[in-house]
Amino acid sequence: MSILVLALNPSIDAEWRVDDVLWEEKNDVHSERRWAGGKGINVARWLKYLGAPAQLLLPLGGRTGGELASYLRGEKIPARILRLREATRVNVIVTTNAGRQMRFNAPGPKLSRAELAKLFATVEPHLRALARPAQKTGLGSPAAAPAVPSVLLVLSGSLPRGVPLTAYARLIRVAHRYGVRTVLDCDGPAFAAAVPARPFLVKPNEHELAQWWRQPLRSEAELVRAARALAEQTGGWVMVSRGAKRSLLLNPAENFQSFAPPPRAKPRNTVGAGDAMLAAVAQQIQRGTPPPEWLRGGLATGTAATKLRPGQLPGGD
Prior knowledge:
Layout: E1 3-6, E2 11-18, E3 31-37, H1 39-50, E4 54-61, H2 62-75, E5 79-84, E6 89-96, E7 101-104, H3 113-136, E8 152-156, H4 167-177, E9 181-185, H5 188-194, E10 201-202, H6 206-213, H7 220-234, E11 237-240, E12 247-251, E13 256-260, H8 273-287, H9 291-306
Parallel strand pairs: 1-4, 1-8, 2-6, 4-5, 8-9, 9-10, 10-11
Antiparallel strand pairs: 2-3, 6-7, 11-12, 12-13
Helix pairs in contact: 1-8, 4-5, 6-7, 8-9
């Protein structure tokens, strides 16, 4: 496996279908659908669909953790599971007949000190094992040319309770030690804390970039200014997803900047579209394709995800 996806705060996603949402009134749920969710799992699901050599590493606990593990087995997603005392969370998506959605995310389990220590102790040997074949052939260096296949660590999603905000930064530094490139997709304080560790690529959406920049982004010029400031801190690539608007990929050190619009589509759902985009970008990086292909492939896959029900892949029921 050349890509390790770390999903620290996975969830079961439950979609409730309703006619409409009535405040302070009874809302009848016509159907419920449950599946393995959370950003990291979404990324791993799409990587498998795209044929990328990836493995998922995630902590699970309780009956819901067992339920989630069964979903992963059913989808044949390669996964290494770390057992927790507390139960895995359930996130709820309420979808109306008009296609509008409300999302309710639970905080998830709190990891003990022992569980946290086991997590870090498990990740490092995985990175060492990933890097070893690349090191034998001279591959895997963060400074390698884009044409060289990469070994990747994908850090995606929120941090569970009990995990310090510096966790992603720590993991990125460990990855550097083994010449493993890191792709980061999170937000808020955990994102801000990870940026100085210099991940290879970060993928904030427009709102998350504005949150890091601490200023609203009122134009594409302001978007570029904020993204360049972020790239100067990471020393790497910044990809900004923007829904139906043009997405941005840049790296000032490589003298590269490109906007591209997504393919036209009538979205059925937006849950997981950014994760599908990230999976395609990770696959392109791992394969050593040129950066313009990262953006093109990411936008095509992200748009494909908007045409599907949450948690589904093309060709699913």
